[in-house]
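The step that takes the researchers longest sounds almost clerical: writing a folded protein down as plain text. Below is the pair of lines this work produces for a single protein:

——
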Amino acid sequence: MNIGAIVAAAGTGSRLGKGSKALVQLNGRTTLARAVQLFLSLDEIAKIVVVGPPARLESAREEVESLRPRKPVSVTPGGPSRQDSVRAGLEALGACDYVVVHDAARPLASAALCRRVLQAAIQSGAAFPGLPPRDAVKRVEGGRLVESLDRAQVVLAQTPQAFAYQLLLTVHTQASDSGQVGDDDAQLVAASGHEVTVVEGETTNIKLTTHEDLEVLEALLKEQEAVR
């Protein structure tokens, strides 16, 4: 079985204010290096495409080269949106059976999580990890409460997400042609009418978005890597 991986690493990180999030260092290593290393450690993954920030593409290549990868890893420029970047990654990856898409901004995703999502996608064609919200969830409009949502029917979506390659390529191509926009790949696939399986996510799989996230991730990584 031929399985590829896409590392979405083209985000500008405007809320974080530190330039490309993929090149932010956490306990001495960039988020990009950590995401690529995750897939290098998985025997299931045959090839990797990094979709990097166009203005920092050479820096992204240097990060990849520093890992001395023993499987094919290419770096290609991303687009103006994450959706555009994933589509560029799919085209650069080329045909395979399944593809795993992961945000470099989630540097603590584990190999076990990746395998769990991949196995679910092999069964159903599409899968993503999610966690139930701990707090009450409300829908509001104009600063006013409209309704309370059932937490049993809501999850917080994460990456990595995994899909049959041809399914995801077709969905992205159709979305590009029609102007459809989705929050993530799972939403685009679900909107096409295809079933998407949800597997259990990880509480430590935090997305680097704000300075608070940066502090939490730095502390978690220092704790984890001090034990090794």
